[in-house]
Each structure stands twice: as structure tokens, then as C-alpha cells.
């Protein structure tokens, strides 16, 4: 659509973009796409790790996606061109991309101390009221699972800012319970590790009954025909 300068006087400001050359619009779209690329997090530092976590064997396509920016910029058509098939796999990948953009992670997504795809978690006791140095024996405490290595000691001021790891809980005295948790030997379960594994964040597909909604009538019709044929023999 081409507009003369005089036409812009009566054009609402919200529609001024229509007067821009097509090349400028493509450039603007590219800039918007790049700005929406989220920053990697410690537990998900690269393309391969992201595809490994969301499962469904998407990690097989890791070498086809050249960069983190490409992972979050390619549309469905472009994903198809590089060989991400079938369509439901592309929809699943795009769905997970949007969740990641919004900060909606699976287990391990809130971990900050991660080395070589492994994070260590442990149980600590902190004052329930959050005070740094409560009088001994007077203030009640609560148990919390934190992502702080054993080699780091915690003092009073540090206890104020501790955050519990999502998706894990303490069972019994000090045992860490949760998916993909691996207890560290000699700690009675109070120290454990979380390691990146295939499908940790995978959303399992539901079981299709008689071929799913689209094929259900056809499958059931053929089954009835086979049953009638068998009954007539």
C-alpha cells in the first residue's frame, strides 16, 4: 500500500506503518524477533540442552539449528525446511519456546549453580521468621532445599536471601525427594544432584483411543466390519 505524504494527515497514527517500504517492515519484524529471544539460563545454556530437556527425541535436530537465536526465531515453515517433522513435533517445539520466553520452566529451571549440566542441592535449616541470628533454642526453624554446594558455608546474612528449589521437598529428617534426584553417597539423602536428562521437561502425549478423534470413526467402522465378517464365518 502506497500513500502520498498528504494522505498521512488523515491517517491514524496507529496505521502509519502502512506507509513504510516493505523492506523496512521486514527489517522491523526481524528486530522484533531478535528482541524476543530469551537469555539462556544456567540449567539451559544452549540449543542441545533445551531440546534434550523437552524430549520427544527433538535433540536429534540439534545440529540443524545453528544458534540460540535461531532456536527462538525460526517459524514453523522454516523448521519444516530444515527437517523438523512431523507437524505436531514443530507445534510442540514452538509451544515450549513460548513457555521458556515467559519464564515457565520445568524442574531445574530455577537453579543458578550448575556445572557441566549438573546441579547440587542440599537441605539447610533457616529461621522461620527470616531473622539472621535468632537466639539459640528460642526461634523455630524450617527446612529448605537450596542450590548451594556443600563447599560453600552459609552464615546468618546469607540465610535471608535463600530460596527453596521448586519441585523438590524434604521427607523425614533431611531426605530430598523429587523427580530425577540422585542422592549423594554418605549424606543420608540430605545432599543430592540434578543432572540434565532426556525428557525431564517433556509433556507426555495422551493415549489415543481408537486412533484419536480424527480417525476414531473410521477405525471403529473397520473394526465392526471385521467383527461382522468373523461372526459370519
Short account of what is shown:
Helix content is about 30%, strand content about 15%. The protein has 7 helices and 7 strands, in the order αααααβββαββββα.
Q: Quote the distance from N terminus to C terminus.
A: 70 Å
Mean pLDDT: 81
Low-confidence stretches: 14-18, 20-26, 28-32
- Spatial shape: extended
Count of DSSP helices?
7
Q: How much beta, percentage-wise?
A: 5-15%
Order of helices and strands: HHHHHEEEHEEEEH
Topology:
Elements: H1 22-35, H2 47-54, H3 68-71, H4 76-81, H5 87-101, E1 114-115, E2 118-127, E3 141-146, H6 156-160, E4 169-171, E5 175-177, E6 181-183, E7 191-195, H7 212-232
Antiparallel strand pairs: 1-2, 2-3, 2-7, 4-5, 6-7
Describe the structure using short key phrases.
233 residues, alpha+beta, five-stranded antiparallel β-sheet, extended
Would you write up a description of this structure?
Strands 1, 2, 3, 6 and 7 form a five-stranded antiparallel sheet that branches. Strands 4-5 form a two-stranded antiparallel ribbon. It has helices at 22-35, 47-54, 68-71, 76-81, 87-101, 156-160, 212-232; strands spanning 114-115, 118-127, 141-146, 169-171, 175-177, 181-183, 191-195. Residues 14-18, 20-26 and 28-32 have low confidence and may be disordered. The protein has seven helices and seven strands, in the order αααααβββαββββα. The chain is an alpha+beta fold and 233 residues long. 31% of the residues lie in helices and 14% in strands.
Amino acid at each position: 500500500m502506497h500513500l502520498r505524504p498528504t494522505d498521512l494527515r488523515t491517517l491514524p497514527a496507529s496505521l502509519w506503518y502502512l506507509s513504510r517500504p516493505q523492506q523496512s517492515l521486514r527489517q522491523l519484524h526481524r528486530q522484533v524477533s531478535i528482541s524476543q529471544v530469551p537469555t539462556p539460563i544456567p540449567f539451559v545454556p544452549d540449543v542441545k540442552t533445551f531440546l534434550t530437556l523437552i524430549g520427544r527425541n527433538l535433540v536429534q535436530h540439534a545440529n540443524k539449528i545453528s544458534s540460540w537465536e535461531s532456536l527462538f526465531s525460526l517459524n514453523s515453515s522454516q523448521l519444516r525446511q530444515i527437517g523438523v517433522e512431523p507437524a505436531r513435533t514443530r507445534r510442540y517445539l514452538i509451544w515450549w519456546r513460548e513457555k521458556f520466553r515467559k519464564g515457565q520452566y520445568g524442574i531445574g529451571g530455577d537453579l543458578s549453580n550448575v556445572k557441566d549440566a549438573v546441579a547440587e542441592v542440599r537441605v539447610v535449616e533457616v529461621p522461620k521468621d527470616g531473622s539472621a541470628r535468632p537466639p539459640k533454642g528460642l526461634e523455630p526453624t524450617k527446612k529448605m532445599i537450596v542450590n548451594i554446594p556443600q563447599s560453600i558455608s552459609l552464615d546468618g546474612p546469607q540465610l535471608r536471601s535463600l530460596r527453596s528449589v521448586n519441585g523438590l521437598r524434604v521427607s523425614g529428617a533431611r531426605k530430598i525427594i523429587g523427580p530425577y534426584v540422585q542422592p549423594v553417597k554418605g549424606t543420608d539423602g540430605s545432599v543430592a544432584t540434578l543432572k540434565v536428562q532426556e525428557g525431564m521437561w517433556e509433556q507426555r502425549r495422551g493415549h489415543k483411543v481408537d486412533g484419536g478423534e480424527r480417525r476414531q470413526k473410521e477405525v471403529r467402522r473397520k473394526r465392526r466390519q471385521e467383527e461382522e465378517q468373523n461372526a459370519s464365518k
